[in-house]
Amino acid sequence: MLNSSRGFSFCYKERLHLDRDFRNVIRKGRKFPAGFLTIIVFNRKDGNNIRRLGLVTSAKVGTAVQRNKAKRRLREIFRTNKHKLTPGLDIIFILKPEIKSTGYGKIKQTVLDSLKNAGFYSEQ
Q1: pLDDT of 10-67, one tens digit each?
Q2: Of 36, 64, 76, 92, which is the most buried if we count CB atoms within 10 A?
Q3: Are strands 52-56 and 37-43 parallel, antiparallel or unpaired?
Q4: b vs e for 40-76, b when ≥16 Cβ sit within 10 Å of the residue's Cβ?
């Protein structure tokens, strides 16, 4: 059972920080277009079970407020569902302008369905 204070945290180690990590995921990962975002997933297979998230957005998505709202939503989806993802994944979400007019429920459903169809997410 997950400890409520630690199991659903989103710590420093679970974020992609380095440019070389982003480039590695983009170069070697599998891409899944999902309408208002593109999901790129790379299974590191390096023995490290930590799942990591990176977010990419541009000014085309909207104002800083709109971009940050979309990023907060995606981080929350990752944070609450990471324990159901395959261990050792690096995931990048590339946001498109359509995301600013999409509700949280639709974003969550699309992300989880895309990852499930790709075989990286299990409902267990």
Answers
A1: 899 999 999 999 999 999 999 999 989 999 999 998 888 999 999 999 999 999 999 9
A2: 92
A3: unpaired
A4: bbbebeeeeeebbbbbbbeeebbeeebbebbbebbbe
